[in-house]
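Hi C.,

You asked whether I'd gotten around to modeling the 150-residue construct. I have! Everything is below, sequence then structure, no commentary in between.
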Amino acid sequence: MGLREPLHKQLGSFYKALLIGNLGTSIIYRPKVAVTEILKTKIPYSLYFGLAAMIISLFFGVSLGIVMALSKSKIWDKLGTASYAMWMRRYMVDEINKDYVKSARAKGLKDKRIMVKHVLRNSFVPMSQYLPTSLLFTISGSGKTTIGRE
């Protein structure tokens, strides 16, 4: 297995094998079976459940974040501790305190229109930048949790 080689040689051979898609064979989980064969059956289920969980948490987190931002310092503001809710609340509170929102209120626009057209749109921009990272963590976390379990 090359474990007696120096660390830099072990790492080099590992990366060479990784580049060509050779992940080796399983030693403990399913002895003498290629790891890629094991992953082929596990990854689709992991992706399905991981993406479904991410979509559900995104929907409820963003919704709760909106409610938390609109009811600042009230009981609803204390409910959300999921990451999407906290980030959405933070971005919305930041946007609500900006000059263009104060200007829109001074011009007589209704709060609902200001929230939907301006605040929600502008606070979702940083949230959308967080989504690719969240997707990558979901995928990589899914693959790690299913390996080693039948």
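If it helps when you're writing up: The helical segments are 7-19, 35-70, 83-96, 99-106, 111-146.

Thanks,
B.
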